[in-house]
Amino acid sequence: MRLSQRIEAVAPSRTVQFTRLLHDDPAKALSVINFAVGEPHTGTPQPVIAATKQALDKGKTRYGPVRGLKSLRTLISEQFDGYREENIIVANGSKQLLYGIMQVICDPLDEVIIPRPFWVSFSEQVKLASAVPIYVDTVDHQLDLTAISNAMTNRTRAIIINSPNNPTGAVYSQEDLRQVADIAISKDLTIISDEAYHDFMYENEAHKGFGSMADIRDRLVVVRSFSKTFDMTGFRVGYMAAPQKVITAMSRLQSHLSGNVCTFSQEGALAALSLSPSLIKEKQRQFQKKRDMAFDLARELFDCIKPMGAFYLFPNIGRHLSAGQTSEGFAARLLEKGGVAVVPGSAFGMEGHIRISYAVSDKHLAEGFERIAGVL
Ligand code: PLP
């Protein structure tokens, strides 16, 4: 059977591919230290599990509103200044929302600016909307605002900003975000702010992000998720805050795509939002400690910029590469010889690096780096 040119042009998710490999071979999974997955290791909070079970027992197993439960959208809207439940849509993870927004705002050959390195799905989601990803290199993992300005054409439709960033863990300064906002205003662009890791920010309490800028509210699309904050990756609940017109269009798309998100998952998400904020603070504290440990271990082996958010390191592996060796070859060597899984930088559009997720136990973190040192 002939497949469409559209799907032929799209690469599979390299991070998801790896998860499948481990599920397919549980014996191998046991012996491998997994620095490749992008999910916390702490476990879904018990009240979330209990609320989900209770929802099942109460028969909350039927179709629901396409945009998500009103009670959930109302609670979510309270996180954003000046937003109401009409500004919120809930979908199957932020992944579906990011796919959806490209469908909703892009026409064929429109251009979307993506700072590089970038999360694996951005480029493919843009392509799936028949639009064109325009990559703009970062400098030391920070935005290059001049290069972003220079990349603008009359086809530029949007810019994707992902802070804290996957794969680098970089957090962009409020000043840089303000400059992105000014560029977006002057060029009439949509800002897509992927904030999947907004609860994983270290030493930056004052960071308010785009949400504090009232003058871009009509062009700002914020995407967040329950996945990482509450260790609910399998629940598949993410949400978008955006102008009502965008939410109405997203809802139209979603009505043909998936309908509502699993009803009892949403009940679990409601319970998550009722958890004490001190739990999130405590989690931040634990992850900051882990970041410190991982960074200290990594810089003994690699050149590495200290990440200020998320749970990834993106070290430079240049000095360990043999002639002609790619990050893919290097990652394969770590897996084969050391039993440590990492994601090659090429998956994020940047050779000469690997991504290490430190969302693992301290024991695995120490052992993983020991194994890497052994291979090197
Ligand atoms: N955005 C970024 C930057 C991510 O790293 C991920 C997952 O790894 C997602 C979005 C998607 O998360 P989810 O679909 O689980 O909400």
Give an overview in words.
With 376 residues, the chain is an alpha/beta fold. The chain has 2 domains: 5-43 and 277-375, Aspartate Aminotransferase, domain 1, CATH 3.90.1150; 62-273, Type I PLP-dependent aspartate aminotransferase-like (Major domain) (Aspartate Aminotransferase, domain 2). Helices cover 42% and strands 13% of the residues. It is built from 14 helices and 12 strands. The strands form 3 sheets. A 7-stranded mixed beta sheet has the order 2-8-7-6-5-3-4, sandwiched between helices. Strand 3, helix 7 and strand 4 (132-137) form a beta-alpha-beta unit. Helix 5 (70-77) packs parallel to helix 11, helix 6 runs parallel beside helix 7 and helix 13 (327-338) packs across helix 14 (362-375). Pyridoxal-5'-phosphate (PLP) binds at residues 38, 93-95, 119, 162, 166, 194, 196, 225, 227, 233, 238.
Summary keywords:
alpha/beta; Aspartate Aminotransferase, domain 1; 2 domains; seven-stranded mixed β-sheet; 12 strands; binds pyridoxal-5'-phosphate
How would the blueprint of this fold be written?
Blueprint: H1 5-8, H2 14-24, H3 26-31, E1 33-34, H4 46-57, H5 70-77, E2 88-91, H6 93-105, E3 111-116, H7 120-128, E4 132-137, H8 145-150, E5 156-162, H9 174-187, E6 190-194, E7 220-225, E8 238-241, H10 244-257, H11 263-273, H12 277-301, E9 312-313, H13 327-338, E10 340-341, E11 343-344, E12 354-357, H14 362-375
Helix pairs in contact: 4-11, 5-11, 6-7, 6-10, 12-14, 13-14
The structure holds pyridoxal-5'-phosphate (PLP).
